Amino acid sequence: MNKWTGFKQAVRGTKILPLMVSMIREVTADNTPPAMSVEVTTDKAVYSPGEEVTVLVHLRDFAPNDRGYSYFNFIVQYDSQVFDNIEYTQQSVYIDGSYTAGNEVNNIFQYNFQNPVDGSIYLGMNTTIRGIDIQVEASSKQNYIPAVDQTLVTFKLRVKEHTLASSSTIRLANEFTRIRTSEAGSSFYLYSPDVTEISPAPVEIAHSPSVSVFSLDTSTDHLL
Question: Residue 98 in contact with residue 156, Cβ under 8 Å?
Answer without folding.
Answer: yes
